[in-house]
Amino acid sequence: MSESTPAGCDCRFCGAPLTHSFCDLGMSPLANSYVAPDRLNHPEVFYPLHAYVCTECLLVQLAEFTSADAIFSDYAYFSSYSQSWLDHARRYVETAIGRFGLDASSKVVEVASNDGYLLQNFVDAGIPCLGIEPAKNVALVAVERGIDTRVGFFGEALADELVDDGVRADLLIGNNVLAHVPDLNDFVTGLSRLLAPGGVITMEFPHLLELIENNQFDTIYHEHFSYFSLLTVTQVFASHGLRLFDVDRLPTHGGSLRIYACHADDAGHAESSRIDVLRQVERDAGLDDLAGYRAYTEQVKRTKRALLTFLVNAREEGRTVAAYGAPAKGNTLLNYCGVRDDLVDFTVDRSPHKQGQYLPGTHLPIHAPDHVRETRPDYLLILPWNLRDEVIEDMAYIREWGGRFVVPIPELTVID
């Protein structure tokens, strides 16, 4: 590990200076800063995409080069365009209602509620809920669905405002938001303030162990400020009076954790054995020591070389390559590898909010999925590899002309 660090860069949790490099992906634009056609000839801003690991608390994190407001106030990601994610949300709601005895007298609050994809299930069940979403354009979709949504960035101040208004959460939810928070301590303080006595917090986020073991470096992008192990997130929550009492390992986003937390003095939730089991798994993988983070950079470089070798050879053989999806992770991958339209012709995405725009940095055009049938590429590079089965099922027709799927992570795989 290198000993270089950006000037004045300290751990966002414990405040220790960041001196140990985890993974340096060079310079990259914001992963969700899609480019409109009339902006193609305008300059783009590229920021260092360099993750560090704190020597004190072992939190893996990026330096903050741009504000959360600049990233999230107008956002291009809408959760409702993935059927598998909608199904995941529905199953969660069904389980939570039964496990925690939620009914019409309960209050459910979701932080970063996006377009209401999850809360709509609570509304259908007659359970009062409130969404908190910083992106005005996304929140508007939720409001149109009849979901009470407050626009704003969640933290201590907003939590106090809600409490003053009489809002306390019996179930407080955050899916794929914890990693997006630049002021981690302020955010978790807010969770503690808003949680009702006897209430439960559930948070889902990509698992650092999966990122390391399955080579998921493309999930590192500027919108993800922090990357959590169970060992580290336990420290973060404990420092704000919250106790983890259970954890689920989930297949979503290539491998995520769902943690369950309550107030530290709440004896009503016994600690599950899954907590100790997973902590030991992480210790066995070396995540309790800096040595466990040392080999990651070379692993990432090998993946870059493999993808570029495949794409160059495909072009030399006269093959055509298109991509599927315009996810943030895909933009990290393509920019780190230096892939442009000399190697990949275009990408397609189901979201109409992205169609007609261009990927940041690479400027690959984003079309509707039908463009694949119209152009009949020889290979389809799946950028949201966590949805590979869903994509392969939806796009199976490329086999009609001998088309094949390419999955870049965890290692490059070609699927007939």
How would you describe the overall organization of this protein?
The protein has 416 residues and is of the alpha/beta class. The protein folds into two domains: 79-293, Rossmann fold, CATH 3.40.50.150; 307-415, Rossmann fold, CATH 3.40.50. The chain is 31% helix and 21% strand. The chain contains 13 helices and 17 strands. The chain has helices spanning 68-72, 83-100, 119-124, 136-144, 156-164, 184-194, 208-213, 230-238, 273-284, 296-316, 328-337, 370-375, 388-394, and strands at 20-28, 47-53, 60-62, 108-111, 129-133, 149-151, 169-175, 195-206, 226-227, 242-250, 256-263, 321-324, 347-348, 366-367, 379-382, 404-407, 413-415. The strands form three sheets. A seven-stranded mixed sheet has the order 6-5-4-7-8-11-10, with helices on both faces. Strands 14-13-12-15-16-17 form a six-stranded mixed sheet. Helix 6 links the parallel strand 7 (169-175) and strand 8. Helix 5 runs parallel beside helix 6 (184-194). The chain starts with 19 loop residues before the first strand and ends with a strand. The mean pLDDT is 93.
